[in-house]
Design goal:
Layout: H1 3-20, E1 42-43, E2 46-53, E3 68-85, E4 88-107, E5 110-119, E6 123-128, H2 139-145
Antiparallel strand pairs: 1-3, 2-3, 3-4, 4-5, 4-6
Length: 156
């Protein structure tokens, strides 16, 4: 059996296990950075959400709660920096949610309400790319590493 066939069998088993036995915390995934930019780059994301309805806007399961209303104003701010670590690209990031959420629900003719505001749990992220091309330090390096991006670098 060649390596490609072994890899295909492994991936098929992995996908089957993920579908058949989902992790309950999948809906609780914190926000994170996915795109890796040039080494030495900084990013300051600011995301704002103003949500309302009868579904908790911060719950990934989107479970509808009858006879209820939920209002939320949430902002997410952070900072990210990319660098090299042992000749691999790496990134460190910090994210902090802040906002207000309030809700009201009726159960057996009784109305319950609750509201809160303030800071959420901060998220610290440290990533090292162990697999893949070497770190990209400037735009000409990106042209050599990824031939599909040559249209960006026609002038180099």
């Amino acid at each position: 059996m060649n390596n490609t066939r072994i890899f295909q069998c492994f991936m098929a088993v992995a996908v089957f296990v993920m579908i058949m036995f989902p992790v309950s915390s999948d809906a609780q995934v914190p926000p994170r950075f996915y795109w890796k930019n040039l080494i030495g780059g900084n990013a300051v994301p600011v995301i704002y959400m103003d949500l309302s309805g009868n579904v908790n806007p911060l719950d990934g399961s989107h479970f509808v709660i009858p006879n209820s209303t939920i209002d939320a104003s949430v902002a997410l701010g952070g900072y990210s920096r990319t660098f090299t670590l042992f000749n691999r690209s790496a990134m460190v990031a910090a994210l902090l949610p802040v906002g207000r959420i309030s809700g009201e629900a009726s159960l057996f003719g009784k109305t319950f309400s609750q509201s809160t505001n303030g800071y959420g749990d901060p998220t610290l992220e440290f990533v090292v790319n162990l697999v893949g091309p070497p770190p990209i330090k400037n735009i000409p390096d990106a042209c050599v590493t990824n031939p599909a991006s040559r249209w960006i670098c026609w002038w180099t």
